[in-house]
Amino acid sequence: MRKGVSPAENIRLLDDDDVREIHNNILHIMENIGLKLKNDEVLEFLGDNGCEVDFDEQMVYVPSYLVEECIDSAPSSFRLGARDSENDVMFQQGRSYFCSCSGPINVLDQEEGFKKPEYEDLEESIRVGDYLENLDVVWNQYTLVDDELLGLQSLKAMLTNTTKHIGVFNWYGRDLVGKQIEMLKEVVGSEERLRKRPPATLYVEPASPLSMAEEHAEAILEWTDYGMPVLNFPIPFAGATSPATIPGSVSQALAESFLGLVISQLNNPGNPFIGGTWPFPMDLRQGKSTYFAAEALLIQAVTGQMADFYGIPVFGTGGCTNSYFPDAQMGTEMAMTLMGAFYGGETLIHDIGYTGAGDAGAIENTIYGNEIVSILKRQAEGVTINDETLALEVMEDVGPLGEYVATKHTRDHMEDLYFPEFLTREKMEEEREPDKKAMKRVRRKCNDILETHNPEPVDEETEKKLDEIIDEASDLA
Amino acid sequence: MSYLDDIKDAISDFDEDRGRELAEEAVDEGVDPLDILDVVSEELGKLGEKFDAGEIFLPTVMSAADVVKAVMDVVNPVIEESGGERDSEGSVMIATVEGDIHDIGKSMVASMLLSNGYDVIDLGRDVPNEDFLKQIEEKMPDAVGMSSMLTTTMGRQEEIVEALREKGLKDKIKVIVGGAPITQSYADEIGADGYAKDAIEATKTLNKILNN
Ligand code: B12
Fold first, then answer.
1. A23, A155, B125, B167: most buried, per Cβ within 10 A?
2. Residue A321 maps to which CATH number?
3. Are the beta carbons of A145 and B181 separated by less than 8 Å?
4. Domain ranges for chain B
């Protein structure tokens, strides 16, 4: 069982009144400004369940008491199932879990450059995710370019290449999600198993400002009919599609995210739900979307604190970079976004491995990110104060000019220390040897994993069934 | 002369309402609408250059473009009515293709084209092929711009190009494409006349293919 980890101390920027102000802002947005929802069937469903709806404008207004009820009914902890029960996740707000990135349409090989992903690349990225100890949830790191049935192909790649919990994208709405559920059922064996140990989380993005696409709304309904976890994560660009100020932007984003909460809870009270908000404002000088910004560390902390207040887990972004190279920018941005998300208290920290601002995924970066997470986990252990750790006795024994290396005290505690795999010192004398760069070690590790790590496959019969479902679905594209 | 100066001020104050009012008053008072157009285009052009050079931020350009658009909406019909010739770089119809709701980049491209003297008809996002083609045939713009941000929707660009070819419009209307998954080689493959990786380049590419 994977249990997550929380930092020794969270970064907290808001006092109680601040938290209340943001909460009231969110309620006000949902009740009075309203959200656009382009799906009459879901509007009708919401209208029947106490929301005010305007069919002409396709708007929904959620009364505050209802939002509060949905917040109360959403669980703060639940189980994420996995093909191998050892990899089941005891998922709870207040702890952090880590996850590889998903979606990019390019593979970035740090030595060879870009290429278009093929099915084998999806499989490789998933196998690497399966191998990496710190990844609790695995996702295919790329999407295929020429395949119209993206959701199903990716799902098959995940189901057959990892035994961990997985994430799935919604691409076309209810019908495709229905097929995804069929495939999941095939692998876990029964609908009951789906409900008890849901093997996948559905990922949807509402569109900022304040709207949700037709296919997303219905997909949430379909998915939560089975009680499986759903994640509704907006990508507001502060200054472009949300207010430039952080409290406003986070309020708007959480209102957008909570429309998914409301749909899921009204459809199936107690359904696992994950909220959240994107932490990177738009670069208003260049007009570009970014995967790093100084403000991330503020937004992540505010979001994490609101998650605490609600007792609702949130999705976060860390381990990503704007850089297209294995360079200083990459290392800085990956580490800082992971730290911001972790110390901020975000729950499911995704995006590890995104490079070039999401243009590509790089499995080398994911492997490197795994090490950064190890370092964060070391910090999470905190410092214990007792006679043994204050160590007066050994100091007395060793005394001035002595040494600690060969003492029992050191032997007893040396394994407390974390020994990095990549961030090591490599002495170079006459000249600097590029082959000794950290990212070269990562590269060798990557080759190693791909050569040796083969997760338990699904049986042939099941794999055939999966293919059949995909074949049948070909008219959905 | 003061109307023109006031309109310039409205642009630098980002005051859309005032821009519209001033334009209306100016036209009523007999100011030559072509002069008004010159002034606003020049102002916006200057801002576009500064943005290119990294001297000012995007919100400044977009806010100014909103005022200019308000002024143009008043002035253009008057010019057309009087049969006058506007000094336009050409007309562009732009949209995000069917099934795709990503429109931030598309809107930026539209603003930049506007600020560089183009008449821009923005159809919005998730525009069904059928509607798009209908609008093209109706308005017959000099160029069509298509944005797609998803690998699942880039195929719509090819379909539109194909349909234009079938309708015999391909030679009359230039096609420019863009969006995250789009590349120059994809543009070549589907027979688009131009591609640009961002809003600044979009203007340059369009200038080139329309021989401006
Ligand atoms: C913001 C965003 C969203 C927002 C869009 C909000 C909006 N109103 O536009 C929301 C949250 C709604 C969204 C939804 C989804 N998204 Co999205 N999204 C993005 C993101 C992060 C940034 C896009 C953006 O606005 N960039 C900023 C603008 C300024 O840049 P730009 O769009 O590239 O535009 C510039 C150029 O491309 C060019 N250009 C653009 N159009 C045109 C047109 C012409 C004619 C020319 C010449 C030039 C040109 O000039 C522009 C200005 O410089 C990208 C990541 C990325 N790397 O692009 C993902 C991304 C595009 N999304 C992705 C996905 C998967 C989705 C969803 C399917 C997720 C889901 N399951 O919910 C849905 C799809 C919904 C749908 N049916 O369309 C993937 C696509 C993967 C793929 N296989 O194609 C991406 C690449 C993220 C990733 N790495 O995984 N998304």
1. A155
2. 3.20.20.480
3. yes
4. 3-82, 91-211
Question: What DSSP element (H or E) covers A230?
Answer: strand A230-232
Q: Do A237 and B104 touch (CB under 8 A)?
A: yes
Return the half-sphere exposure (C-beta side, CA atoms, 13 A cut-off) of residue A271: 29
Range of the domain at A407: 387-416
Inter-chain contact B58–A286, Cβ cutoff 8 Å?
Answer: yes
Of B59, B180, B198, which is closest to A239 when you measure between CB atoms?
A: B59
Q: Decide if A214 touches B, using CB distance below 8 A.
A: no
Cα torsion B164, B167, B171, B174: sign: negative
CB contact under 8 A, B57 and A144: no
CATH of domain B91-211: 3.40.50.280
CB of A266 closer than 6 A to ligand 1? Answer: no
B25 CB near ligand 1 (under 6 Å) = no
Chain B residues inside the 8 Å CB shell of A237: 104
User: Around A389, how many Cα atoms within 13 Å sit in the side-chain half-sphere?
Assistant: 6
Structure tokens at A374: 């190890």
Same domain assignment for residues A310 and A412: no
The reply to whether B184 touches chain A by the CB within 8 Å rule is: no
Q: Do B58 and A143 touch (CB under 8 A)?
A: no
Total number of domains in chain A: 2
Please give the model's pTM, rounded to 2 decimal places. Answer: 0.91
Looking at the structure, tell me whether residues A276 and A393 fall in a common domain: no
Ordered per-residue pLDDT tens for chain A, 477 residues: 999 999 999 999 999 999 999 999 999 999 999 999 999 999 999 999 999 999 999 999 999 999 999 999 999 999 999 999 999 999 999 999 999 999 899 999 999 999 999 999 999 999 999 999 999 999 999 988 877 777 898 999 999 999 999 999 888 788 889 999 999 999 999 999 999 999 999 999 999 999 999 999 999 999 999 999 999 999 999 999 999 999 999 999 999 999 999 999 999 999 999 999 999 999 998 889 999 999 999 999 999 999 999 999 999 999 999 999 999 999 999 999 999 999 999 999 999 999 999 999 999 999 999 999 999 999 999 999 999 999 999 999 999 999 999 999 999 999 999 999 999 999 998 899 999 999 999 999 999 999 999 999 999 999 999 999 999 888 776
Asked if A154 and A183 count as a contact pair (C-beta separation under 8 A), the reply is no
Cα A422 to Cα A239: distance, rounded to the nearest angstrom: 38
Token code pair at residue B57: 């931020």
Query: How far apart are alpha carbons B212 and B48 in whole angstroms?
Result: 17
**Does ipTM top 0.90?**
no
Does the Cβ of A240 fall within 6 Å of ligand 1?
no
Q: Give residue B64's identity as a one-letter amino acid code.
A: A
Is ligand 1 within 6 A of the CB of residue B194?
Answer: no
Does A358 sit in the ligand 1 pocket, CB within 6 Å? yes
Residue with CA at minimum distance from ligand 1 atom 79: A103
Mutate which of A144, A155, A170, A289 for ligand 1? The one with the most ligand atoms within 8 Å of its CB, which is A289
| B149 CA → ligand 1 middle, Å | 5
CA-nearest residue to B179 within chain A is A359
